[in-house]
Amino acid sequence: MRLYTKTGDNGQTSLKGGRVSKDDLRVEAYGTIDELNAFVGQAQAEAQRHGKLSDLAGLLTEIQHELFDCGSDLAFAKFNEDKMKVSAGMVDALEPWIDRFIAEAPELKRFVLPGGSALASSLHVCRTVCRRAERRVVTLASEYEINIEVQRYLNRLSDLFFAAARAVNARLGEADTEYVRSAEVFRSPRKE
């Protein structure tokens, strides 16, 4: 198999059902998701090196598959609901992981800076690229009909990356670095 086809040399690329400019909103959205997937792969490789993080390594592999599904859903020239892969169930499945990771980390009172362990730093990169991918999908949705579950998935996924970064630091004995110029902005819910 040849890797190069030369069909994109003129600035066009193929979608499912047509060709568009390489800077088309759909290409920008699923291209940013592809970039995110590469960063998730980097974090997954790091997680595999730690015995305490095998659950996270497995989750990150599943997320990589789901990100491919997200990109696939956005790669149609014309929306076709019957061919969509991302579902509300995929979004809902992220929430117990978020809750679990939040429970592992110390209570949050201030904003935290990305950092701590190398893996937590990688997960913060994933979070920020995920937010950018979400913004690209929001822009896309303002122009084209899309599977809105992709947008919901990315929104929830960025929360997961934040929670996982803090849990990783806790498991590895690394402290989060609080943003010291901030007042306490997060408070525990009142007990009644």
Task: Please sum up the structure shown.
Helices cover 58% and strands 6% of the residues. The chain contains 5 helices and 4 strands. The protein has a two-stranded antiparallel ribbon with strand order 1-2.
Write up what this structure looks like.
- This protein is mostly helical and 192 residues long.
- It is built from five helices and four strands.
- The strands form two sheets. A two-stranded antiparallel sheet has the order 1-2. The protein has a two-stranded antiparallel ribbon with strand order 3-4.
- It starts with 11 loop residues before the first strand and ends in a 14-residue tail after the last strand.
- The model has no long low-confidence stretch (mean pLDDT 90).
Look up the CATH topology.
Answer: Hypothetical Protein Ta1238, Chain: A
Largest sheet: 2 strands, antiparallel
Taking all Cα atoms into account, the compactness measure Rg is: 19 Å
Task: Give the CA-CA distance, first to last residue.
Answer: 65 Å
Number of helices: 5
Q: At CATH's second level, what is the architecture?
A: Up-down Bundle
The percent of residues in helical segments reads 55-70%
Top-tier CATH class? Mainly Alpha
Shape: elongated
Element order: H for helix, E for strand: EEHHHEHHE
CATH evolutionary superfamily: Cobalamin adenosyltransferase-like
